[in-house]
Amino acid sequence: MTTRRGVDPSGIATRAEFAAQLTVLRERAGLSARELARSAGVPLATVGGYLSGRHLPTAASRDVLLRVLDACGVGSEDADDWIDAAGRARRNGRPSSRARDDAAR
Asked: Which residue, 32, 17, 24, 20, is CA-closest to 3?
């Protein structure tokens, strides 16, 4: 499903894709990272982490992501798609438990 800003979060599978698509939203909203952080009431370091892919929103920081999306013009009807995308990117960014077990041996 493509949001009104022309970005489809259903295709996001990795941290890099999440970061790139969130950056597209920010740019289409005409905001710098600093302006986005200020508008969303979120620390610049948090926004920068999301935009770079260093950090992903968690279930505990759902409200933060919703404020960032709102500042970018993404409506509440599309927010769940973005939350799902963050979850996919988070899962795909972790090695499987088997791979972690093998690495520990």
From this structure: 24
